[in-house]
Amino acid sequence: MLKPVTLVLEIRLRQAWRSARSVGGLWLIGLPLAVVFYLSLLSTLARQPVEIITALGLLPPLLIHFRRNDLFFLEKQGFPLRLVLFTEYALLSLLLVVPVALLSGHYSSIGYCLAGALAIAFLPQRGRRGSGARPWGLSFVPQQAFEWRSAIRRYGWLFLLFYLPGLGLATYTGAPLLSVVLFAAMLPDVYSDCEPKELMEPFFSRPGGLWRKLGLHAGLLLAGLMPLAMLFFIFSPEVWYLMPLALLAALLYQAFAILYKYAYYYPGRRKVHNGITAGLFALGLIVPFLAPACLVYLAVLFRKAKNTVELLNG
């Protein structure tokens, strides 16, 4: 029973190693910053109650569970699916929770995370193969924003899972901010699928198409997050400036996702793999002295994306 589990874990380690190698020299910058961020996070969490430690420890497995598309493959290959999922989720959450427990003495959070990982492993997935769910009605989303139509059909209920606590717990300063951050974290996935060349023509057949694309999607994102922002301003006016900063970070992250797609687009491409680069860009947004580098990178991506669409139209 344990042999298939160890085989899957070995595959995951090899995948992680390949991803790490693909970054190349960026690790010289990214790894020290990641270590500093990780140690700072541990120090902060060590002062939090058990509930917060457990919730943050289970957040990565929860995000992964509802976004993964390999469950059918694992079942078809005969792996003990729930045991594999539990093992992966438990190890992932314990990477954060065990050091925090050693620093804070909240050892009960380890048990809670193991129980939570087991529960997540048995959660159903919307949209798995064989599902007969009807597509959502999305008339409120413009046809030009087809990326959002596709993302809502795939992850709409997950967006709600991130969004609704920010509304319901808006009296707590961190709740709307956390909802904005979690919502923004999904943006690279929203723009990872590449559309056919024909769908690009409404935006890029005229000069300034890339700006129109960025403007439309920025407007949609702000409109969607505005209820969270308004409640934050009402209940947390003493730290009002945090919400504009969070919204600005979300807009920059969205711009990165859009520009990255078109910078590396070619006819027939179905998906861009932006995961590691998106993670480094998000880290740059979090660390203040790296923010200028993010802006420079956006300018580079914009020029590459502009050249790409001009070549496609030429």
Summarize this structure as a short list of keywords or feature phrases.
single chain; 314 residues; mainly alpha; 14 helices; globular
Morphology:
globular
Q: Uncertain segments of ≥5 residues (pLDDT<50)?
A: 127-136
Give the termini distance in whole angstroms.
Answer: 58 Å
SS elements, strand count: 0
Question: Can you describe this structure?
Answer:
- The protein has 314 residues and is mostly helical.
- It has 14 helices and no strands.
- The chain is globular, with a radius of gyration of 21 Å.
- Mean pLDDT is 80; it is low at 127-136.
Concise account of the structure shown:
The chain has 314 residues and is mainly α. It is built from 14 helices and no strands.
Secondary-structure blueprint:
Blueprint (H helix, E strand, L loop, with lengths): L1 H22 L3 H19 L4 H16 L5 H6 L4 H24 L3 H14 L24 H23 L5 H12 L1 H4 L6 H8 L4 H27 L6 H22 L11 H12 L4 H23 L1
Helix pairs in contact: 1-5, 3-5, 3-6, 5-6, 7-8, 8-11, 8-12, 11-12, 12-13, 12-14
